[in-house]
Amino acid sequence: MPEIKEEKPKKDKKKIKVYTNKSKNKRDVESVIDNLKSKYESINAEEITKFCDFPLSSNTLKALRECGYHKPTEIQRETIGLALQGKDILGAAQTGSGKTLAFLIPLLEKLYTLKWTKMDGVGSIVITPTRELAYQIFETLRKIGQHHDFSAGLIIGGKDLKFERNRMDQCNIIICTPGRLLQHMDENPLFDCVNMQILVLDEADRCLDMGFEQTMNAIIENLPPKRQTLLFSATQTRSVRDLARLSLKDPSYISVHENLEHSTPKGLSQSYVVCELKDKVSVLWSFLKNHPNKKIMVFFASCKQVKYVYEIFCKLRPGTPLLALYGTLHQLRRMDIYENFCHKQSAILFSTDLAARGLDFPAVHWVLQVDCPEDPATYIHRVGRTARYHRGGESLLMLLESEIQMVDKLKEKKIPIQKIEINPMKLNNPVRKMEAFLAKDPTLKDTAQRAFVSYAKAVYLMKDKEVFDVHALDTDSFARSLGLAIPPRIRFLQRMHAMLESKQQKKEVGRSSNNKKYFKDSEDEGVSNNFEDSGVSKPKYIPKEPSKSSQSGHFQTVENDSEDDDILTVKRKDHDIDLPSQEEIAELDMGRISKKKALSKAAMAKKILKKKIVPNKKILFNEEGEAVTSGKTKKSELALQYENENEGGIDIEKAKQVLKEEDKFDKQLFKEKVKAKHKEQKRKLKEQKKKEREDKDDFGTSESEEEPDLSWLPDPDKVYNNENEEINEEEGETDRESSPNKKQKLRNKKKNKKNTNFNADSPESGPKRKRKKLEKLTLNMDVNEAEELALMLLNKKT
Ligand code: ADP
Ligand code: MG
């Protein structure tokens, strides 16, 4: 069967031989079809034991045989005949009872008997609530439709729209999620379903519930009214309104397990434990450690919890491979995880309710529900991931003391569930290790904080207030059980408390205000905690009065949970909430519990600017931690203008010009500083000279006082000649120097000596001295060196 599929291009356009005998001519085919059609009316479900008892095309029967499907299940036996007769059907059967084939077989047969070709366009659409389920149905269709010549397309979000768009017109069967289908209907001129013959809603109650209401209404508007409609689910809708929306014509309601004692599969053994919120992590950890090498699914209330528990448990290493599936993951990653869990013999899959419906993971041993499901239907679908098609399985539900009423509700729905006790001695609490990991990894800590807040929100948004009470949660100890030493702030709860308090005060001062709960509706298509594929409208409300326990929590860290506020959604339209007064809506807007647009970067920047926070502002602190104003101020006119004009961000070009201008001032300043330094040096030099001069005078006067008069001694120059001068110079100061004049002379000679060392032509060095010096120099020289020196001197002379 040819199909559109992005991830596995090799399978694209896979055409398997059309199961028609080529020797038969067209008329033969028509007669075969007529023959089949003629038998439709006489189909009796009671008499059917094998698929070949149905008047099905040989193409379908062959594929069924090849796939190992020989006997129809109950729901297949009851519905296939009616569907072949063209009836609208509401099919209800337990999870894992084979509903997929119950609608895929009649779908193929319908197109076959209509001799549907590629040229006829879209003949059938199957809508499912999640991408993974759509993919699973697509794979089943590929198997059982392999001998037909229809093309099929998997149209789900998170894939290349362009790719899908170009091939939409070639598709005879579309398997899709509601959002993406509507997108094509709205944006794709090639998409046309005016000829569509058969519409299927799998997990119909979910497709028709509040989350998809707007989308489904828009889709239905685009579909031809003359069509056959099949609805299937384990928890089938019977809402007259839903049926009216779909304009079903005299539908047949087939509920094959309605009269059974239990609404869940026979092979499923179900139990629940009552534990405190703070013990949930340790119960889960201990359970997983005690059930190694099993295939286990673990359900949580929100994506962020799944993410955190998955990440921290990966670090704790339970010994069994871990996987996590939730809506905020990238589509390819989701598919990869889905496939991975399908093929694993033993693994633990943490998940939101994204994986609760329809997914047929082979041989799941256990389903664990860490967080209470929102209603019995969700419970049924969650546990239905195990004990599928006559196999066995087990499930465990963790309930808080405050949620115990859920047990009665489950029992009302014919769910056999029994209480079991936890042996506290066997509990293994990993909290210390978790704390250590969080201390090392701030990103993980942030994930933990988000998980904590998102759990509180999930509970807060549950519609069933008899079961769920956010105020009954011991949030402080729950935070600690997640490894968080300080409980994060739950801002929406604080705001709610503040509002309720102010409301109370108003009442007290006589300003009556009605007791309505808060509600604000938004029709944004968004992502809810659990049903990430759905577009969810977002009524927001404040439930009953807070209890003391929740108010007692003092939250010390500041956690920005504004992002989480966007997913404040309730999951059903029949929410028990009243409309608010205008005053209350205004009040809510003040409290930021209002309809929110996605916060773009530009919007965030504007927000900052409004708050008059100057971006890129630099504050310097001294060692005492006090802010000090920067000594550097702008001087150029351009810079001042730039500073005044610039409200935020950096205009690189302008900033460059400003720097150039400022550079001129800096250079000027530098020059001035250098000048000043030179001036100072000169001044010091002058002072020194002056001092020296004064010193000389002082020396003259003091000398006469301190030194004895030795003028009567003979002149040493005359006695020792110049030779002694040299010696004296070399030895330093001479005691024989007596008179100040002679001392000065000696000083002068010392100076001259320095000169003579570097200047052989000094006028003061006599020829005799030169000779002596040369003699001295040449004393240690060899002949060559002396010759060289002599030549040099000769050259100089000439
Ligand atoms: P449901 O939609 O009712 O939850 P599925 O259609 O997913 O159930 O089928 C559950 C499992 O039963 C699947 O693995 C499927 O292959 C198997 N199955 C369905 N019909 C038959 C059949 N007639 N014979 C054997 N296995 C079947
Ligand atoms: Mg199903």
UniProtKB/TrEMBL annotation:
<dbReference type="InterPro" id="IPR014014">
    <property type="entry name" value="RNA_helicase_DEAD_Q_motif"/>
</dbReference>
<feature type="compositionally biased region" description="Acidic residues">
    <location>
        <begin position="723"/>
        <end position="734"/>
    </location>
</feature>
<feature type="compositionally biased region" description="Basic residues">
    <location>
        <begin position="742"/>
        <end position="754"/>
    </location>
</feature>
<dbReference type="InterPro" id="IPR000629">
    <property type="entry name" value="RNA-helicase_DEAD-box_CS"/>
</dbReference>
<keyword id="KW-0694">RNA-binding</keyword>
<feature type="region of interest" description="Disordered">
    <location>
        <begin position="503"/>
        <end position="566"/>
    </location>
</feature>
<dbReference type="InterPro" id="IPR011545">
    <property type="entry name" value="DEAD/DEAH_box_helicase_dom"/>
</dbReference>
<comment type="function">
    <text>RNA helicase.</text>
</comment>
<dbReference type="GO" id="GO:0003724">
    <property type="term" value="F:RNA helicase activity"/>
</dbReference>
<feature type="domain" description="Helicase C-terminal">
    <location>
        <begin position="267"/>
        <end position="431"/>
    </location>
</feature>
<keyword id="KW-0347">Helicase</keyword>
<keyword id="KW-0547">Nucleotide-binding</keyword>
<dbReference type="InterPro" id="IPR025313">
    <property type="entry name" value="SPB4-like_CTE"/>
</dbReference>
<feature type="compositionally biased region" description="Basic and acidic residues">
    <location>
        <begin position="689"/>
        <end position="699"/>
    </location>
</feature>
<protein>
    <recommendedName>
        <fullName>ATP-dependent RNA helicase</fullName>
        <ecNumber>3.6.4.13</ecNumber>
    </recommendedName>
</protein>
<dbReference type="InterPro" id="IPR027417">
    <property type="entry name" value="P-loop_NTPase"/>
</dbReference>
<feature type="compositionally biased region" description="Basic residues">
    <location>
        <begin position="674"/>
        <end position="688"/>
    </location>
</feature>
<dbReference type="InterPro" id="IPR014001">
    <property type="entry name" value="Helicase_ATP-bd"/>
</dbReference>
<feature type="region of interest" description="Disordered">
    <location>
        <begin position="667"/>
        <end position="777"/>
    </location>
</feature>
<dbReference type="GO" id="GO:0016787">
    <property type="term" value="F:hydrolase activity"/>
</dbReference>
<keyword id="KW-0067">ATP-binding</keyword>
<feature type="domain" description="Helicase ATP-binding">
    <location>
        <begin position="80"/>
        <end position="254"/>
    </location>
</feature>
<dbReference type="Pfam" id="PF00271">
    <property type="entry name" value="Helicase_C"/>
</dbReference>
<feature type="domain" description="DEAD-box RNA helicase Q">
    <location>
        <begin position="49"/>
        <end position="77"/>
    </location>
</feature>
<dbReference type="GO" id="GO:0005524">
    <property type="term" value="F:ATP binding"/>
</dbReference>
<dbReference type="Pfam" id="PF00270">
    <property type="entry name" value="DEAD"/>
</dbReference>
<dbReference type="Pfam" id="PF13959">
    <property type="entry name" value="CTE_SPB4"/>
</dbReference>
<dbReference type="GO" id="GO:0003723">
    <property type="term" value="F:RNA binding"/>
</dbReference>
<feature type="compositionally biased region" description="Polar residues">
    <location>
        <begin position="548"/>
        <end position="559"/>
    </location>
</feature>
<dbReference type="GO" id="GO:0010468">
    <property type="term" value="P:regulation of gene expression"/>
</dbReference>
<comment type="similarity">
    <text>Belongs to the DEAD box helicase family. DDX10/DBP4 subfamily.</text>
</comment>
<dbReference type="InterPro" id="IPR001650">
    <property type="entry name" value="Helicase_C-like"/>
</dbReference>
<keyword id="KW-0378">Hydrolase</keyword>
<feature type="short sequence motif" description="Q motif">
    <location>
        <begin position="49"/>
        <end position="77"/>
    </location>
</feature>
